[in-house]
Amino acid sequence: MSTALELRNLIRSGYQRIGQILFQTDVYGYPYIICHHEDAELSTEPAFGGLDQYEGPNAVREISTYAEDGTYRFTKGQTNLKRGWVVILDNEEDLRQAVDQFYPACLGLFLAQRDGTLDVQNLRDKLNRQTGMYRFARTVSDAGAQQLVQTVCGPAHQCAKRILWKIDETTPLDDSEASRFNGIVGDLPAAQAIPLLCREACNHFVAECRKVAKAEFEKKDGA
Amino acid sequence: MREALYMIDADEIYVVPDFISEGYFTQDVIPRELELTGPTTVVRGKTLHYCLPVGVHRSMTGLILHRAKEVAPNVNPAETTLIITGHGTGLNQNSTKAIRDQAELIAASGAGYAAVLDAYMEEQPFIAQWDELANTPNVIVVPFFISDGLHSFQDIPVLLGIENEVGPAASQRDAFRQNPHHLRSKTLFYTSAIGTDRLMADVILDQISDFDQEHKSL
User: How does DSSP classify residue B199?
Assistant: First the structure.
């Protein structure tokens, strides 16, 4: 079944959220609309409560690239999606494209997890394949990496993805707010929200590992 | 990049690097990340075809000519030097080669420019000496980059003499909107990076078509 039809079925079975966005069906005759979940009430008022109206999935790029304060959203898992808009979509395929613009691949990752086909890559495997200037990141200690998860990941640091990976096959993440986060923004039951999933450490995390690895090396060197 | 396969329903995928030339990223990083082992690889049940990067395709010639015509529609090519400019760096000869190849293709194309030259930010011939490199009253400079950024917004305008110093004032569209620039006794036209041209979409399709011709026509 196509991802678009899977999404339609998910919505019919009660899913209405992913990340910070909310889906609604059959609003003022439009098959699907998406808005920021904090604008939910406005979106049900006449003329969408004054929210800026956009049509079609391509509009999402404009909405999701910069935060309200103008900063660039370098990872789409950041919880700084701006408010004040509604996107109108004609069909499930357009809806899927729009969701993939807000949260690239997150629908597919969720479906793969549900179906048991999701591959997760542990941190050591990710770091060990880096080349060039990021090669050095592989020397970061386990303790250094564990500390980074707590200082770089999770909702407290603006990332709304649930970490699925471990340090390596035999070393799980230390318990922390970041490691416990379930990928759902806000207090919603799991049956209503598609979780954002993190299957491998992102570029930002790898870059931070490199910095910590360098600091650890310099400390050892100077000692 | 490995997440990308999870968002694609199709069984057959063409991967086209949006890069200006071959090099570290197209030859090492992308194949590594996508787990490619050759021109065609099966990954997670999907068939991936790995094409050449857009910048090396011969149809970039048409884009450069299109952009030059767009920025300077009324100049006589016979009185104009077209300069294609790139970074130039000892680290990677491929990007310099891509620019040299384009300069030769355009010179041979019959577009009618008095001269078609390559020039660089960090290797000879230097773009900073554009007025000495050109013997014509008009000069068009086209940055051979995949996107606009620090080089085309800030560095090159300074090297050309359009701006006095690197800074935010030269950012965004200002550097490209005020053509022509009357500088150093010549008339200079400066365009935004070639990779921002709408026709890039066709170059992507051209690389896919070339892949099929080379690998599927047996």
Answer: T
Going by their DSSP bridges, the two strands A162-163 and A197-198 should be labelled as: parallel
Res. B217: pLDDT tops 90: no
In chain B, the domains with their CATH numbers are 2-55+198-215 (3.40.50.1400), 57-196 (3.40.50.1400)
A81 SS3 class: coil
What's the confidence (pLDDT) of residue A74?
85
Closest CA to B50 of B37, B60, B40, B65: B40
Q: In order of start, what are the domains of chain A with their CATH numbers?
A: 3-115 (3.30.1360.190), 123-222 (no CATH)
The residue assigned the tokens 């542990």 is A122
Set of chain A residues whose Cβ sits within 8 Å of the Cβ of B7: 3, 100, 104-105, 107-108
**Closest approach of chain B CAs to the CA of A72, in angstroms?**
14
Q: What is the pTM of this model?
A: 0.90
Question: How many whole angstroms separate alpha carbon B14 and alpha carbon B99?
Answer: 25
Triad A214, A215, A219: Cα angle to 5°: 115
Q: Which residues of B20-33 are buried (b: 16+ CB within 10 A; e: fewer)?
A: bbbbebbeebbbee
Residues of B in contact with A109 (CB under 8 A): 3, 6
Handedness of CA B195, B199, B200, B201 (dihedral sign): positive
Q: Chain B closest CA to A2's CA: distance in Å?
A: 6
Residues of B in contact with A129 (CB under 8 A): 32
| pLDDT per position as a tens digit, B56-102 | 999 999 999 999 999 999 999 999 999 999 998 766 678 888 899 99
Q: Which of A100, A131, A200 sits opposite B7 (nearest CB)?
A: A100
Check if the beta carbon of residue A146 is closer than 8 Å to that of residue A208.
no
The residue length of chain A stands at 223
pLDDT higher at B175 or A154: A154
Burial class (CB in 10 A: 0-12, 13-18, 19+), B121: middle
- Does A200 sit within 8 Å of B2, measured CB to CB? yes
Rg (CA), chain A: 19
In contact, B160 and B153? CB cutoff 8 Å: no
Question: Does the beta-carbon distance from A131 to B32 stay under 8 Å?
Answer: yes
Crossing angle of helices B200-215 and B60-71, in 10° steps, is 170
Chain B residues in contact with A112 by the CB 8 A cut-off are: 6
Output the CA angle B25-B96-A203, nearest 5 degrees.
20
